[in-house]
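Minimal example, chain plus PBG.
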Amino acid sequence: MAFPVTRPRRLRATPALRALVAETQVSCDDLIYPLFVDARARQPEEIAAMPGQYRWPVERLGDEARRVRDVGLRSVLLFGLPDWKDATGSSSWHDEGVVQRAIGAIKRAAPELVVITDVCLCEYTDHGHCGVLDGERVDNDTTLDLLARQALSHARAGADIVAPSDMMDGRVGALRAVLDREGYADTPILSYAAKYSSAFYGPFREAADSAPAFGDRRSYQMDPRNAREALREVDEDLAEGADMVMVKPALAYLDIIRQVRERVHVPLVAYNVSGEYSMVKVTSAAGFVDERTMVREVMTAIKRAGADLIITYHAPDVARWIREGRWTD
Ligand code: PBG
């Protein structure tokens, strides 16, 4: 059968019909909001490359956590900017470190929020790489122990989920072993399993002061030309004990999200990264596109590709639009 008997436009005629047959929904429950906490900030400092995002002093984080909860979000992802850095990133595993204090502040203000912590060394090393150096090489195996110490210290401080983003081989297994041994067998690991080496992280590196002092991250993050390799990374992380896996960035990697979705049965997270956020903010501020419609299309595409959860800087805006009945029209 074909036109004129069939007319796909029949089901697109009104908003009510379109809503009835919509295949993809986005809800507040799907969203994770990243927060930057800065040990040296006295006031919230807006991040120039990410309009509307701030580096928060620990003392102000409780208010922000309440705002995030009250708008209807369930979860935040924490990044720390420490007050000092060294070659091994040792400020990342101090019990009084910036992320450790931030977890406490959030838990006191909004205990229902699920607190996920990013586990990596790049914000804490003076050279800005995600592991320790041996000459100019990032040394995989000596880094594992330091990442595990950091994750353990986050778990002790009350983190609900730890999320290693360094892309060292074997980090999930290393974290799992230490967490299990130290009494945190129930702390889940969200692995940044397929994390690509991407220009879309540019604004984040300004936000987190984590740009590498020399070279780039291509010897540990994935090559954008590879898709099969992403599946291998996911398989290995699951074998090492990952509870959830992530694909990052999202928009240029929707094919990877789809392939991982078809392969695994654990929750799949996609990271709508800083550069993707900035593109929307800058083009909409210039009046070239409509921000809300564009954000809706971006969120919908990531869910349609197969993600269960989306880490996104747009999360509070999306939650507000959903609440105000301005998300679908
Ligand atoms: C730390 C880390 C990065 C991001 C998340 N964790 C930066 C990087 O790998 O250079 C990027 C997040 C974003 O761009 O929003 N390794």
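The chain has a mean pLDDT of 97. The CA atoms of residues 231 and 260 lie 6 Å apart.
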